[in-house]
């Protein structure tokens, strides 16, 4: 039983297309509706070889620096529960659904994978809830604000040059 299951899992991983989704920075992926994680929770019963390795500790880069770099480098950055193709809450799903209507490059981080990242994002934006959306380096807000901007036509204006840049590349 273990061998066919591992073969199926490996075939599933090999069959995943990187171009199928947006740039996703996450420690998990989904296949046929099931979530697979590349990290192991901090469990005292887990051998240290299998514990998550947070590279920021050894590299001297703080999570605040990572958030700042994410926001600076990505025209549309969303910190959310889950990933754009598989949101893990209704608010994150709503934000992604609205943003995808504009056909802009969407980058995301799954805050459920790292509680310290979640705290760093809250500290960076001074905003308590998720998702958190940044457009061209500016903190916009959550799904309610994105939806409101969309309904007023203001989100189209904010994203217009991004959609044009994406088409020309």
TrEMBL record:
Its domain of life reads Eukaryota
Read off the InterPro entries from this record: Glutaredoxin (IPR002109), GRX_PICOT-like (IPR033658), Monothiol_GRX-rel (IPR004480), Thioredoxin-like_sf (IPR036249)
Task: Please indicate if the UniProt record lists Metal-binding as a keyword.
Answer: yes
**CDD domains linked to this entry:** GRX_PICOT_like
Q: Gene3D superfamilies under this entry?
A: Glutaredoxin
Q: Offer an example of a GO molecular function term for this protein.
A: metal ion binding
What are the record keywords, sorted?
2Fe-2S, Iron, Iron-sulfur, Metal-binding, Redox-active center
UniProt cross-references to SUPFAM superfamilies, sorted A to Z: Thioredoxin-like (SSF52833)
Residue intervals of the Glutaredoxin domain? 76-140
For this record, the Gene Ontology CC terms, alphabetical, are: mitochondrial matrix
The record, for NCBIfam families, names: Grx4 family monothiol glutaredoxin (TIGR00365)
Q: What PANTHER family does this protein's entry cite?
A: GLUTAREDOXIN FAMILY MEMBER, GLUTAREDOXIN-RELATED PROTEIN 5, MITOCHONDRIAL
Family designation: Belongs to the glutaredoxin family. CGFS subfamily.
The protein here is known as: Glutaredoxin domain-containing protein
- Classification lineage: Eukaryota, Viridiplantae, Streptophyta, Embryophyta, Tracheophyta
């Amino acid at each position: 039983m273990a061998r066919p299951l591992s073969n199926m899992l490996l075939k599933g991983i090999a069959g995943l297309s990187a171009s199928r989704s947006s740039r996703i920075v996450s420690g998990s992926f989904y296949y046929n509706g099931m979530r697979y994680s590349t990290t192991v929770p901090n469990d005292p019963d887990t051998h240290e070889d299998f514990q998550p390795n947070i590279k920021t500790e050894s590299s001297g880069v703080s999570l605040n620096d990572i958030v700042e770099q994410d926001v600076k480098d990505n025209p549309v950055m969303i910190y959310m529960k889950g990933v754009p193709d598989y949101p893990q809450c209704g608010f994150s799903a709503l934000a992604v659904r609205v943003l995808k209507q504009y056909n802009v490059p969407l980058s995301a981080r799954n805050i459920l994978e790292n509680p310290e990242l979640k705290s760093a994002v809250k500290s960076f934006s001074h905003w308590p809830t998720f998702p958190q959306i940044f457009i061209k380096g500016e903190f916009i807000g959550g799904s309610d604000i994105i939806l409101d901007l969309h309904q007023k036509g203001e989100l189209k204006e904010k994203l217009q040059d991004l959609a044009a840049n994406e088409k020309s590349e």
